[in-house]
Fold each of these.
Amino acid sequence: MASPTTVTCNAIVPELLNPHNYKHWSSRVRTYLVSKDLWDVVKGKHPTPDAEAENKAWMKKNAEALHAINISCGTEMFSLICEIDTAMEAWEVLEKEFKLPPRSEIEETERHDERDTTIDAAGQARDQAGENNANNFDRYKPFFDYVNHGDWDNAKECLLGLGSDADNALRATDPYYQSTALLVAALNGNVHIVKELVQLMTPEDLEIKSHIGATPLGALARQCKVERDAIEMAKYMVEKNDRLVWIPVTFSGKIPVVEACVWSKWELGRYLYSVTPTEALMPQNGPHGACLLCECFGRLKMLDIAWNLLQCCPTLAIGESMLTLARTRSAFLSGTRLTRWQKWIYNCIHIQAVDVNSLGISINVFNLKEDQGKTNRICSVMSLFRRILKGLLKLLGINTVYEMKLKHLQIIKFLHWMGQAVGSQNNDIVKKSMFAAIEKGHVEFVRHMCGVNKRLLFEIYDETKGPIFHYAIECRQEKIYSLIYGLEKETRKWLGFGGTNSTKTMLFSACQLSPLSQLNHIQGASLQMQRELQWFKEVESMVPSEMHDLGDNVNNLPAGELFTINHKKLMEEAEMSMKGTATSCTVVAALVVTIMFAVAFTVPGGNNGDTGIPVFIDKKLFMVFIVSDSISLISSTTSVIIFLGILTSRYAKDDFLKSLPTKIMIGLFTLFLAIAAMMVTFSSALIIMLHGKYSWIVLMSILVASVPVSSFAWMQFPLLIETFMSTYGPGIFDRKVKPWLKI
């Protein structure tokens, strides 16, 4: 199995990023980005939203730079930036996490730590270790070498040979690794050596820090290889000195339990949480509790720990953790990308109640455990059946969907708690969280937060974004739009429906081009243009007709003209897309027309010389041949006419709403019918000609003939279905939404 630092043949660095090689890694990646003209994206500024061409170019360069950074990170390092959308932010996160401060800053930090009364003894031990390290490390080097290679017997002999100087050897730091022997053994996963060293060292010795300001426990939380061994080693350290769980890593400022969760060491983090006093996570003792909540919500791990922490300190509910939860896509069904099959499974699963305290990250009703220690035949059969059932559930996706729904129900319970915890407060975090949820389209966050605390709908307002209803239109979040639209009429007035200026703001927001994140998941420029028109028509229908001709505040243009100007490039792309599809399909349809017309007069077996009647006219398969040939000829001719109509259309703005999508649907369907009927004609003619002989040739030919039909259906039917649902389906706006908030 490949190691986390293994690089592929197309890698841009010889070694993936790990906690020890950031200096060389960043230099190589920076050189690569500069050579590809991508460094300005990492250190430059985002172009103005109005410059559409520049914005698209920036998006492309940002994606290339972010991809280069992502593939150059190891698995653990990538977890720090996996949810980041810009290369600039990803580079800043990695730089902040790994770039070492100047040596003078480290020494200043260590001198400051030495003045702390809680670690005076550790500071004195560190000073003494540093002095001994400078003068006598050559004496300790064999001891360090044996520890590094996991040879405790010889390491112990070296300690005995040092005599009274053995204590100084335990406190000394290796000049190369800048670590004590205990830290070296811990990072190598040598549990036995760690146990022996902890017994020999004093509690104060365990607080000696490395060059990044990490105690052995803190370093273990960052860089352990096997969590099971790390938990065992952590137990030895904490039993010897329970103050270790309080001491943060100087470089990151995080205590061990938070450090473990940041580096995705969840089982170690669960143990460290059990031994960390609750007071260490309270707000008055630093941001550690808030950081731990953010990690739990951001990765959706250890939700039971998060629930326990919130019960101990409810004020943490309205901190940065609320904003993290609002931004986490996988925390809500509206933020996940499920297939139709997975959505059906999701809706079929019913969970009566969720007890957050009793649910861990591995709880799963489908997680069937195998019996251990039973070797009789019955148990072997049952064990095999369970493995098959477990694999089947995993293959069907039921396991994953169940865990997802369970976590979503847990999050809903958190939202109810947070809505109550907000109370009469309306701080900046609450406002940012609501707008972040709207931007991501998390309708569950808005529904449950406002359902518990209805005043959030009326009081949350941003000077640049406006009310939450206006921002839902600006971000093109139709589910949140429909949710608020379901309010009673009197309630809507408070949300910005009433008033000339407010109504104009909504209308002209709908005239702007949608965010790229909302358009990218729609297939084809024509469907994107249709979605834009649907939004414009929807908002326009709410606005009184006398306001349609009012100009905006900048160019004094009516809404219709402003929409056309803002969507000019998208309309051109949609027109090119439509014409390209129509041109290609016209060629195929015309070819089918030519073939099927010729086939109609060159029937298998030929015609009777006297009467001109086909020889096989009395056979049933011959009737199949004639009918399928006629269907194919008529369908392909219809398809040619339809696609010619698309090519000669005027391509006005409103044509993209229904006229052009309807034509493209009819054209694609008739072309598919023509190709399918052509293959039926071919198969029936082949059977007639062979007179029932060589059946294996006939069977193989029919199977091969089904390939073009299947290929066309596989590639074009998704577009056909999506176009039909977008044009004649229930629509993106839910008109059946019932009022969910009583005023």
Note: The CA atoms of residues 358 and 697 lie 63 Å apart.
Amino acid sequence: MTVISTTSDRDLSEFNSALMQYSRELPGIPEEKFLCYPNKWFLGSQHQCSCGFRHLDRQNKDLGFAEPVEWWPEEPEDIEATKQVVKSFHALLGEGAKLDCVDAWSSDEKADPQLAGEEIINFSVTPVSSFRFFEGHRFEFSSET
């Protein structure tokens, strides 16, 4: 499950497409507590969860941001959906909004979650085609040059 928060009052459902949907209805994962901004959104994919985006699980985080490669199979729809998400992030940042997200595995366990890490993602140096979410991480986004 991927949840975001922003300072923007914009209705993010304007960005919705067949591959990605913003919803004000949060999934109720404990990691929502790590979001920093007042306007919170669930980011869903064509599968109703957030699994239709490019992700790395905690064990593979060291692979970092990278272009899709043949030895790591990814669905073309997941790659395109992730590009659409990043374009929506660019739009928000371009309007001066602050933006963060948390990507978490949804389970029945309601234990006190711990982040595996926090990272500042600068889209002026991270290409759209290289971006992917990291499970258990909080990302703070910027586009500063």
Note: Residues 2-142 form one domain.
Amino acid sequence: MDDDYFSYSYEPIHHDEVRLVKFKHDSDRISGVLKTFPLGGPIPPYNALSYSWLSESPATNATEECHVLETKQGPLRVLDTMHSFFRVLLLKGAESDDLWWWIDSICINLRDVEERSQQVQLMGQIYRNAHAVIIWLGEELDHTDRAVDFIQLLNKTVRQQTYRPGSDEIRRIFQQDHYQPHWAALTSFFQRQWWSRIWTVQEYAMNTNASFWWGMRSFSRFAVEGALIGADQCTSVAFKGTPAFRHGFSRRRVQVLYKKGQDETNKLHISLVALAAYTSCFEATDDRDRLYGIKALASDTCFLDVDYSESVEDTYLRFAKAFIKHYKSLDIICFASIYSSLPGSVLPSWAPDWRARIDPLSVPLMVSQSAKPHIGNLRPFALTVDEPSGPSPRYAATKDSVAICIFKGLKLVARGRIVDVVDGLAGSRNTKLVQCSAQVNLTEVASGCISASEILRSVCKSLVLDRKDRFMRIAMPADEFFYDFMWLCSQLMVGSVSLVTKEFQEWYDYTTSILIQGRSFENVLRDSNEAIGVGLSSSAPNQDEYIFDSFFGRFFDTVMRMSLRLMVTRNGRIGMVSEKASKGDLVCVLLGCSVPVLLRQSGGEGEGTFKLVGECFLDGFMDGAGLGGDACPERDFCIE
């Protein structure tokens, strides 16, 4: 069909206005009327549609078939997914309700970059103010009825007054073989394109009146959330470990937090950085939308305007610079260790590249701990209102200092100190052991850290990042966790492998040979009275990875989920670093950064430029110890 046929021409729109569309039945097709309204003034009730621009069939996305919406101003090209929506709209008779709709691909002139940027800036208001949000999942399939009926059954069972969270009732009922076809249908439901798209996260969360349309079937978001709660309990069902489940459960968490944050009594802060990290597993046609598509959910977006005239990389760089200037904090640069630049990217090593695809962790980094609201995390809301009594423990490698830095093009020049150098690195699943140098500078090591007991306590603290629970709110209970650590090690020392989980066995095998202050970790254990004494105990510690406040639960998060490995410095200090770390990396504290970071010299000797490797846990240096003394004077680091 000739492009000249699509003669619809959008009228200009002001910065505080929106277009709405009303559908009318014309024989066997839908026609439409578009009209502009002031968003903050008199505006009729309208539904906002949430849908995927992509068809469920890749072959359909690749075809040249065109669909149109007839209007008095001329035919308007519409997406293929809109064509199927119009057919259902006709069958439902919804057009007779005289309702207006807001549908982005129809109501925004996408060819006008300035209008697109301006309208995306208003998305939060558009979805919050809608009479209802209709989530369109596409045409019905053979298993649609089974999936929807199962959603409603799961929800009903979960909502029963007799149901108790953590009980076995849900598992007992729904893990029976009889329900396998139902779980398959439910998995297919969460595999619809809509669930994987970044834009739909905020569209799902922002309106209290949201419901799903799947063909002719309709059902509430409330029912879907109940089904997700039930599915989360059924650990032996294959659905629990799929990307489909994560896509559903992740957005449910975002929705719950957003809803609670709107309550005036809660004032919950949800940072854009935490949201960008948590939603990086979702798909985006335009990678700028990895920030713009969730912007309306965040509490701190005043320093990020929507601008589609910029490139993806310029958008990410502008966001990182604006964060540093606004908060006077360098914490955002730590995200660049896991959201590192893609091949061919011009982004510097210190600017997160949000295009990296990573499974969601509610607390992906040490700087994400709850005591730092400018970063924050996506932990469950129940844990945000019951903070420990007294001051919340927080990493403060440079105490309360603010960032002292300037930007030179793509380079960040930041003030800080070198406190040590990486010397040895334990092995891991993806890396080999890097042995410490034979010469160890024990003269610079605090005398109280040389005994076997102190070395092991430092290793224990490092393995859990000196925190008790997964959300890093509470300091490590030293004696309790040390007992658990010693018990696990002692069983492996005597060959009782059946009593220890394979994950800890694996870590132990990768670590036994590393030298710590001139002795192998294995020899340090054998020299320790604690290891011998605990080994005689019959009281086994909990080894369930889902117990947030146990030694093993924290170990599992640090080593397995965050993929950190044990490090030993030239001065015999112990810590944890990412798998990207290398021998010779500098351990630095940068003013305005909550945790130490690793910097790697780039260019030739004496060039004075560095690449950021990532954040670092260094026992004894998480609370400002690296700021004083003449041994490590302040200097500027030019990070590129």
Note: The chain has four domains: 3-136, 144-209+221-261, 269-392, 407-639.
